[in-house]
Amino acid sequence: MNEVLATGRRTVPRWMATPESITAALLVVAFGVSAAFVPRFLDAAYLLDRSSLYMEVGLMALAMTFVIVAGHIDLSCASILALVGTSIATLHVKLGVPLLPLVFLAPLLGALLGGINGVIVAQLGLPSLVVTLATMALYRGLAQVLLGDHSVSLPAWFTGIERVAIAGTLLPVPLVLFLGLAVALGLVLHKTVFGTWVFAMGTNAEAARYSGVPVAQVTISVFVMSGVFSAMAAMIMISRLGVARYDHALGLELDVITAVVLGGASIFGGRGTVTGSVLALFLIAVLQTGMGVANVKAEYQATASGALLIVAVLMGNCFARFRKWTASKGEGSCSGS
Amino acid sequence: MVIPMGEQVPLVKAVGLYKAFEGVDVLKNASLDLLPGEIHALVGENGAGKSTLARIIGGVHTPRAGTVQVNGRTVHFHRPCDAIAQGIALIHQEPLTFPDLSVAENIFIGRQPRRHGRIDWNAVHREAAEILESLGVKIDPRAKVRGLSIADQQMVEMASALSQHAKILLMDETTAALTPSEVERLFGILRQLRDRGAALAFIGHRLEEIFEICDRITVLRDGEIVGQRLTKETSIDEILRLMVGRPLAALFAKDVKHAIGSIALETRRLTCAGQFSDITLQVRAGEVVGLAGLVGAGRTEVARAIFGIEKIDAGEIRIGGQAVQVAGPRGAMKKGLALVPEERQRHGLLMPMSVWQNTTLAIVDRLARFGWRRDAMARDVARIGVKRLDVKLRGIDQPIRELSGGNQQKVVLSKWLATKPKVMLLDEPTRGIDISAKAEVHRLVSELAAEGMAVLMISSDLLEVLAMSDRILVMREGRIVAEFPREEATAERVIAAATGQVLRE
Amino acid sequence: MNNRWRLVEVRELPTLALWVLICAVTALVQPKFLTAGVFRSILLWIPLLVVVAMGEMMVMLTRGVDVSVGSMMGLAGMAVGIALRDHPGIGVYGAMVLGIALGATLGAVNGLLIAYGNVPAIVATLGTLGAYRGLVHIVSRGVQVDEYNLPRELGRWSIDGPFGQTLVPWVVVFAILAAAGTLLFLRFTRVGRDIYAIGGNPEAAWLRGIPVRRVTFLVYVLSGLGSGLAGVLYASRFGTINPAAIGSGFELIAISAVVVGGVSVFGGSGTVAGVVLGCLLLGTISTALTVLNIADAWQGTTYGLVILVAVIFDHWMGTRFRKA
Amino acid sequence: MFRKLTLLLFLVTGTTSCQKREAASNPGTTSVAAAASGPVRVVYIPKNTGNPYFNGVVAGLEKGCKELGAEFFTTGPANPDATSQIPFIKDQVQRGVNVICISPNSSDALNQVFDDARTRGIKVVTVNTDLVGNESHRDAAVYPCDFDTLGASQIELLGSLIHYEGRFAILSSTTDAPDQNYWIQGMKEALKNSKYTRMELVDIVYGDDKPQKSRTEAEGLLTKYPDLRAILAPTSVGIEQAAKAVEAAGVYPGGANARGRGVVVTGLGTPNQLRRYIKDNIITAVALWSPPDEGYVSAYVAVGLATDKITAQTGNSFDVPGFGRRGFGKNNLVIAGPPLIFTKDNIDQYNF
Question: Domain containing C79: what range?
Answer without folding.
Answer: 11-20+33-315
